Amino acid sequence: MSDEVIRRRLLIDGDGTGDDRRLNVILKNLTKWAHSTGTEPNDNQIVLDRTLWQLGLCEFSVKRSKILRKTSTKQLRKYSQIQEKLEMEITKTKDSIEESKNNLKQAKIWKQNHVMYDLLANTIVGHPARKETNKMLNNLQTELKNLKEQSKSLEMKLDLRKKQFHVLVTSANQLRAMLEEVENEDSNMNMSLIDITNSPEPEPMSE
Fold first, then answer.
1. Is the CA virtual torsion 3, 60, 53, 51 positive or negative?
2. H or E segment at 169?
3. Quick one: pLDDT at residue 207?
4. CA–CA separation, 163 vs 170, rounded Å?
5. What local confidence, expressed as pLDDT, does residue 184 receive?
6. Are 9 and 16 in contact (CB under 8 A)?
7. Does residue 33 contact residue 48 with C-beta atoms inside 8 Å?
8. Which regions of the chain are under pLDDT 70?
9. CB atoms within 10 A of CB 29
10. What is the DSSP letter of 36?
11. φ, ψ dihedrals at 62, nearest 5°
12. 204 phi and psi, to 5 degrees?
């Protein structure tokens, strides 16, 4: 206890309180018993008995304090053990949380991969097998080849038809020119005949 607390206790009660009061009373009794003249043995015995009784109480208080101290030490040791155990549990819990986080992360990745796998599987199921696809591709290539050959044949026929049409147009133009020439010649001949027909008859020559 601090000096201030002791001073306050002494101001309130000259003998103090608790163990302090008991020690002060013992000191007073011992002083009184030491300075007694021995004329009153009964009083001396009473003082001695009281002193012994106070000493017993002090001894009991000391034992109690020792027991309390031992108990407190055990409790502190127990609390230290509990604290260490709690710290270990906290460390294990933190490790478990970290492991759970990693497992959750892995689970999310696995779930994402599983979803992508399902999508790819559904897409693959929706398409024909490779053998059928190759067969269809070969058929399409064959059909494309035939179409190219047909297109080439049609182009050749078209070129031939263009040439024939050109020859036909040329022949038609030549024929038209010939007909126009013939018509012009016929027209000239008709004009000549008309002129001859319309010319006056010659007068007979006088004798």
1. negative
2. helix 130-198
3. 43
4. 10
5. 77
6. yes
7. yes
8. 1-22, 33-44, 126-129, 190-207
9. 20
10. -
11. -65, -45
12. -70, 145
pLDDT value for 185: 76
- Spatial CB neighbours of 162, under 8 Å, sequence gap ≥ 6: none
| Crossing angle between the packed helical segments 18-34 and 41-126, to the nearest 10 degrees | 160
CB atoms under 10 Å from CB of 21, counted, come to: 15
Look at residue 61 in the predicted model and tell me its pLDDT: 79
All residues at 6 or more sequence positions from 21 whose CB lies less than 8 Å from its CB, including other chains: 13, 15
> How many whole angstroms separate alpha carbon 180 and alpha carbon 19?
161
Residue 107 and residue 197: Cα distance in Å, rounded? 122
Q: Are the beta carbons of 38 and 70 closer than 8 angstroms?
A: no
Instruction: State the pLDDT at residue 90.
Output: 92
Is this model's pTM higher than 0.85 or not? no
